[in-house]
Design brief:
The structure holds three protein chains of three kinds.
Chain A lengths: L8 E6 L5 H7 L3 H9 L1 E5 L11 E7 L5 H13 E7 H6 L11 H8 L23 E3 L6 H13 L10 H8 L24 H4 L16 H10 L4 H8 L7 H8 L10
Parallel strand pairs in A: 1-2, 1-3, 3-4, 4-5
Chain B lengths: L4 E5 L3 H9 L4 E7 L4 E6 L9 E6 L2 E6 L16 H4 L3 E8 L6 E4 L7 E6 L1 H15 L6 H7 L3 E6 L9 H4 L11 E5 L3 E6 L2 H10 L2 E2 L2 H18 L8 H7 L5 H8 L5 H5 L6 E6 L8 E6 L9 E2 L2 E2 L4 H20 L9 H4 L7 H9 L36 E11 L4 E7 L3 H4 L6 E5 L7 E8 L2 E7 L3 H7 L6 E8 L12 E7 L3 H13 L7 E7 L8 H10 L3 E6 L9 E2 L3 H4 L9 E6 L2 H13 L7 E4 L15 E2 L2 E2 L6 E3 H4 L9
Parallel strand pairs in B: 2-8, 8-9, 9-10, 23-24, 23-27, 24-25, 25-26, 27-28
Antiparallel strand pairs in B: 1-11, 1-12, 2-3, 4-5, 6-7, 6-14, 10-11, 13-14, 15-16, 17-18, 17-22, 18-21, 19-20, 19-22, 20-21, 28-31, 29-30
Helix pairs in contact in B: 8-11, 9-11
Chain C lengths: L3 E2 L7 H7 L8 H10 E6 L4 E3 L7 E7 L2 E7 L3 E8 L4 E2 L13 E4 L3 E7 H10 L1 H26 L12
Antiparallel strand pairs in C: 1-2, 2-9, 3-8, 4-7, 4-9, 5-6, 5-8
The chains are: A alpha/beta, B alpha+beta, C alpha+beta.
């Protein structure tokens, strides 16, 4: 798309999600105006009443696939989009609602709803990539506005998007933040989590929650063993990884280890 | 210079701080941060960590309040002076001008003069090591040089050691023996002050202090002796660099990788690590393009990425690279160890990996009785640190120049040759085998082979392998491009004198060899036989097709072309390029070989050359690695002890040794 | 394989076998024995020496010229996957079961071959084990060399791995 003169058609759609990632685009404020000038926003329910079912040059997809209807819709949208970009932990990993993947979904339905048959819901909440090919992913819960801008800039300027797959620790150290794990004996997931938030929580003295999901070569086992050595119980450790990216394999492994009482996370 | 020592009473410490601030200096000193001692700007002595200590262990650092009001009784914290001399993010290049005519301008650093208060012995050694890396090579880091000028170093001699300290093992402490303007030794009622330079002496003069008493001197000596006891005898490190480099196949690396998180903390707290990456910032439409240098680490995945591959994906390979570099190949590169024994990497590793144990485990040293202790790492007193880095602005800096596209040839579906005009004398004086870094606004700057030199310019042959190279391929006549170079060590053309020259290459590998062929043909009578064996994927993927046919017909150079597969219209050879030479009936005892191509192809070629009796000293290959700077400063292109950008990219097989073709190096 | 038979030439087949890389390591007696089993032949550009999948009766050594080995790929036509250069063998399938050509061999330019009748060679090998013991390793090493080359071709080292949309 380098050097494009026409305004690419941009769409923003949503599946099972909280809307926070779309909100990040709105939160760009002044830069949103630049985006709106450079791109033709044809579908963005949270921002405009203009609707379109496609085609899209770029489609930002928020939310996980959670119902049979959504499973069909994403396949249709894939056909309409030249570039499909998933945004946020729900779309890239399944979100916090993927906690149901570890439990009996049917039992929840029966316990909560008087007429469970009315609720059409897939047993698992899954990332978009389980249904269609995805061209790019923006991680985070919510995504980083700066990374979204970088992706859009890369598309218009024609450069490779600079979305480094590195640990939060690099950003902490660049910012001069003191490591809460080493100095504060906190359980911080930073070393196995992708940066993108700018080390937001550690800078405020709180361990990383893992919002941006596991980075490449995430050695969750080693970190879990360290927490255990510090006295954390298996349940506590599983709880650390069972968050917004629970369904991402490198985190899910820890949550599933020893769930049935066999083996432990150590 | 005033000799002797003085005494500064504890209550008067702030006079020293104010004295340092005189003349607009920023004073950086240890302060109490969130759970650790962090270096920060201070305005009064009150901000120093009076009465604080830190208990350290692998993966642990705990602030403790002590009864005594001593100021400097802590081991080094997570921040180092590198934060001020080599900041985490620095703007390097701005693209100035109107669209289509933008030129790269360096961003000049204008740092305030600084005073570093509380620099420990290991940290003085670290500054000296960084001076060697960043300010002593053929090309220096201009930003670092500007920031290191006029640093006033107020050292402090440690009185306590942390559990992770090992300066005595690395020969950098605990005594402060040089590299300072002023040195403090903390006593219970004040500070013993020594002077180490003219600037220091002027400072102390201004304080009007009383000379130190014998009792006070004795107290300082006792404190140092106690510290030496606390540190204990250093373990032997004889032959450590060689042993580490030789341990490339140790099973220990895989074992460490099970624990190591590859989180890069060790490299980022290290006061000597210098690896960086260059990022691009711009607005949505490409305006306001700036390139930025930021701290990076050999532990990140992208560190060793190249178009179409990555040389170090496994964590065990990345860990081995770090440890072997820090304690081993740093010696070959800079004449000193990279490690100063500060212990930060041990303390701040989230899972407490202890490099002292790891290097002993990997290097498998003999028992302590058998080996004499190691010599000091850096001769601190003679290191260019205090009367510092005295380079004039612009000296030994490789600047960016610009060139204009004169014409363009499409070689294949994805390869383009650009003919560029320039009047930059540096670019015009390039040698066959050298390369340039080529930059366009808002895009990464890749290394590109120079495929021909002209009196008024040069030619670049580029493959559209990524966004940046594709943009270069899309340049039209009249467009400008920023070039840095020429850099690297080129082909040893003189060695071809009197020999049979064999050139074996494939695909785009012919590009860096074309200037060599140009030169060999210019001095045709000085070589015996000239033979080019050139392989490509298909007939359409060959470079310089018309030129090759013309050269072949000319008779001065024998050209054997081959492809991996072809359609029925191709009447030439189909098969691998190595089989052009493996059964040839000719003698190879006066052959010199120049090869370029994918590493696996080069390996197959070398195998055949060995079978034909061509020795490693007469086989020269050009290598490719990830490069962000091209001048030996960003650290990405390292292969063992070599920086491919400045020690290469041309190497003889003899000097590469087992590093050639080794996976994961 | 079809080839025109050549009359008496200046060179004997024995001299030729002494000068090609495939056969020059053989002891003199073996070369003579082999020479007796073969003949020199010329080919013209475009001559088809054997067809992929069909029975192959001749093993030949290229002496001069170039022979293309081609395989049929329906959507792409005939693809040349190797050329046999002087000194190399074409038609080793004549002495390896099931004695069917694994590719189509076409002379790209006019040239000269040393041709050996497959069935005759096989009978000779059965009757003279020492001959077999000398010749089979040569054929095997030529095929091994070809396999090594094929593997490098297979690695597709010059290809561009470009999967991202930017």
């Amino acid at each position: 798309m380098a050097g494009v003169v026409h305004r690419p058609r941009l769409g923003v759609v949503k599946f099972a999600s909280c809307d926070g990632c779309q909100l990040t685009l709105l939160d760009l404020e002044d830069q949103l105006l630049d985006v709106a000038e450079r791109f033709e926003i044809v579908e963005f329910a949270e921002a405009t009443s203009r609707r379109s079912k496609g085609p899209f040059d770029i489609l930002l997809v928020e939310g996980s696939i959670s119902t049979p209807e959504q499973a069909e819709e994403i396949v249709r949208l894939r056909r309409e989009a030249t570039l499909l970009v998933t945004i946020g932990a729900c779309a890239t990993a399944g979100g916090i609602q993927a906690l149901r993947n570890l439990a009996d979904h049917d039992a929840f339905r029966r316990a909560v709803y008087p007429r469970p048959g009315l609720i059409e819901s897939l047993p698992r909440s899954t990332p978009v990539s389980e249904y269609v090919a995805v061209d790019a992913e923006l991680y985070g819960c919510p995504i980083s506005g700066a990374q979204l801008l970088e992706l859009l800039t890369a598309l218009t300027v024609g450069r490779r998007p600079q979305l480094p797959d590195e640990a939060v620790c690099l950003e902490c150290k660049r910012r001069g933040a003191v490591c809460v794990l080493v100095a504060g004996a906190q359980s911080c997931l930073g070393p196995v989590t992708r940066t993108g938030c700018g080390a937001l929580c550690p800078v405020f003295g709180r361990g990383c929650y893992g919002c941006f999901g596991p980075r490449e070569a995430a050695n969750s086992e080693s970190l879990a063993a360290w927490f255990a050595g510090d006295g954390a119980s298996d349940k506590e450790i599983r709880g650390l990884f069972a968050q917004f990216n629970v369904n991402a394999p490198a985190f899910r492994r820890i949550v599933e280890a020893g769930r049935d009482g066999e083996g432990s996370v150590r | 210079m005033v000799a002797g020592a003085w005494f500064l009473p504890r209550a008067e410490l702030d006079r020293l701080v104010q004295s340092l601030r005189a003349g607009g200096r920023e004073v950086i000193a240890p302060t109490v941060g969130e759970g650790a001692i962090v270096l920060s700007g201070v305005e009064t002595a009150d901000e120093l960590p009076h009465g604080w200590g830190v208990e350290v262990a692998p993966g642990r650092a705990t602030l403790v309040k002590r009864a005594a009001e001593r100021v400097f009784d802590q081991p080094p914290g997570p921040t180092s002076w590198k934060r001020w001399t080599f900041p985490p993010r620095v703007d390097q290049i701005e693209w100035i001008g109107a669209n289509g005519e933008r030129l790269p301008q360096p961003v000049a650093a204008q740092p305030k003069p600084m005073a570093f208060l509380g620099v420990r012995a290991c940290e003085i050694a670290a500054l000296a090591v960084q001076d060697r890396v960043l300010a002593a090579g053929p090309v220096v880091d201009a930003d670092y040089v500007a920031r290191r000028k006029d640093n006033l170093i107020v050292a402090v001699e440690c009185a306590v050691a942390g559990e992770t300290c090992f300066c005595s093992t690395m020969g950098t402490g605990p005594e402060v023996t040089g590299g300072f303007d002023v040195a403090l030794s903390e006593l219970d009622d004040g500070f013993l002050i020594r002077v180490g330079s003219t600037a220091g002496s002027a400072l102390v003069d201004g304080l009007g202090l009383a000379p130190v008493s014998d009792v006070q001197q004795a107290a300082a000596r006792r404190a140092m002796a106690a510290l030496r006891d606390q540190l204990g005898p250093p373990p032997p490190t004889d032959g450590l660099p060689e042993r580490l480099v030789a341990a490339v196949d140790s099973p220990r690396w895989a074992e460490i990788a099970q624990r190591c998180l590859a989180c890069a903390n060790c490299t980022l707290v290290c006061p000597t690590c210098f690896c960086t990456s260059v990022g691009q910032r711009s607005e949505l439409d490409g305006q306001g393009a700036t390139s930025e240098r930021r701290w990076d680490s050999c532990f990140t995945l992208d560190f060793a990425r190249v178009a179409g591959g990555n040389f170090r994906t496994r964590v065990e390979d990345r860990y081995r690279q770090w440890l072997t570099h820090k304690f081993g190949t740093w010696w070959s590169q800079f004449g000193t160890s990279g490690c100063v024994g500060c212990g930060r990497c041990i303390t701040w590793c989230p899972v407490g990996i202890d490099v002292r144990a790891e290097i002993m485990a990997v290097a498998g040293l003999p028992a302590p009785e058998a080996v004499p202790p190691v010599a000091p790492v850096v001769s601190v007193a003679s290191a260019a640190s205090v009367e510092s880095v005295a380079l004039a602005p612009g000296e030994r800096v490789m600047p960016w120049a610009s060139a204009r596209v004169v014409s363009k040839t499409s070689e294949t579906a994805d390869v383009v040759t650009l003919r560029l005009a320039t009047d930059d004398p540096g670019l015009l004086a390039g040698q066959p085998g050298q390369f340039v870094m080529a930059a366009l606004p808002a895009l990464a700057a890749p290394p590109v082979s120079v495929s021909r030199f002209h009196p008024d310019g040069l030619e670049l042959t580029v493959r559209a392998a990524g966004a940046a190279t594709r943009a270069i391929c899309n340049l039209e006549r009249g467009a400008t491009v920023g070039l840095r170079g020429p850099v690297g060590r080129g082909w040893p053309v003189d060695l071809a004198e009197g020999r049979d020259v064999l050139i074996v290459t494939g695909g785009i590998g012919l590009a860096p060899l074309r200037p060599l062929i140009d030169e060999l043909l210019r001095r045709r009578d000085r070589s015996a036989r000239l033979h080019l064996a050139y392989g490509a994927r298909t007939p359409g993927d060959r470079l310089y097709k018309a030129e090759l046919d013309r050269l072949a017909a000319g008779g001065e150079i024998e050209i054997s072309q081959t492809v991996d597969r072809a359609g029925p219209e191709w009447l030439g050879r189909v098969g691998v390029v190595t089989q052009v030479i493996d059964r040839a009936f000719c003698s190879c005892d006066r052959t010199i070989a120049f090869i370029c191509g994918p590493e696996r192809m080069m390996e197959a070629t070398v195998k055949v050359l060995h079978e034909r009796g061509v020795p490693d000293e007469r086989v020269f290959a050009t290598l490719e690695r990830h490069m962000d700077c091209g001048v030996g400063l960003c650290g990405h292109c390292q292969l063992g002890r070599f920086f491919v950008c400045k020690d290469g990219p041309v190497f003889s097989l003899a000097e590469l040794g087992p590093a050639f073709g080794r996976e994961g190096l | 394989m079809t080839a025109r038979h050549l009359g008496p030439t200046d060179r004997s087949l024995e001299d030729v076998l002494a000068a090609t890389w495939l056969t020059y390591p053989l002891p003199v007696e073996t070369r003579s024995r082999l020479a007796a089993l073969g003949r020199l032949a010329t080919v013209s550009a475009g001559d088809v020496l054997m067809r992929e999948g069909e029975p192959n009766d001749s093993l030949a050594i290229v002496l001069d010229g170039r022979v293309a080995l081609r395989m049929r790929v329906p959507e792409r036509g005939q693809v040349t996957i190797l050329t046999v250069e002087p000194g190399d063998v074409v038609g080793w399938s004549a002495v390896v079961p099931p004695y069917r050509a694994t590719s189509t061999a076409v002379a790209l330019v006019g040239g000269e071959l040393a041709v050996f009748d497959g069935p005759m060679l096989r009978v000779a090998f059965e009757r003279e084990p020492e001959l077999a013991a000398e010749v089979y390793p040569l054929v095997l090493s030529a095929v091994a060399r070809r396999l090594e080359g094929t593997r490098l071709q297979l690695l597709d080292l010059f290809t561009q791995r470009w999967t991202e949309p930017w």
